[in-house]
Amino acid sequence: MDCIFCQIVAGKVSTEFLYQDEDAVAFRDIHPIAPTHIIIIPKKHIPSLAHLSEEQLPLMGHMVRIANQLAKREGIATQGYRLVINCGKEGGQVVPHLHIHLLGGRRISDKLG
């Protein structure tokens, strides 16, 4: 199992879960680019957004709901936050496991790229 996120889910790499249920987990990014930088991942290995099946679409809604809950808990919901999903190497995806970045706690640049 080479996927670092699968190793986290399996408990082989230690991290503090900010959220956990039967389908997903959330934890702080080890290389944060904002004061609040949380990663939300499905427990099941899905390589990227491009690999999401029709049956797995409700999982994305669930992960967004988790992000919204965490934004409230972190105190960034009122001021605003950004959700980012990178897809593929040229899209900036570093870990080949579907994940959402929850970013906030400061003004996030309007510039993309």
- Alpha-carbon distance between the two ends: 31 Å
Segments where pLDDT lies below 50 for 5+ residues? none
Q: Could you name the CATH homologous superfamily?
A: HIT-like
Helical segment count = 2
User: Structural class of the secondary structure composition?
Assistant: alpha+beta
Which strand order does the major sheet show? Answer: 1-2-3-5-4
Number of domains: 1
Radius of gyration: 14 Å
What's the CATH C level? Alpha Beta
Overall, the morphology is globular
According to CATH, what is the topology? HIT family, subunit A
Share of helix among residues? 10-25%
Could you characterize the architecture of this molecule?
Helices cover 21% and strands 20% of the residues. The protein has 113 residues and is an alpha+beta fold. The model has no long low-confidence stretch (mean pLDDT 94). The chain is built from two helices and five strands; from the N terminus they run αβββαββ. It has a single domain (4-104), classed as HIT-like (HIT family, subunit A). It has a five-stranded antiparallel sheet with strand order 1-2-3-5-4, covered by helices on one side.
How would you summarize the topology of this molecule?
Blueprint: H1 4-9, E1 19-20, E2 24-28, E3 36-42, H2 57-74, E4 81-84, E5 100-104
Brief description of this entry?
It is built from 2 helices and 5 strands, in the order αβββαββ. With 113 residues, the protein is of the alpha+beta class.
Considering the chains and any ligands shown, give keywords for the structure:
113 residues; alpha+beta; HIT family, subunit A; 5-stranded antiparallel β-sheet; 5 strands; 21% helix; 20% strand; globular
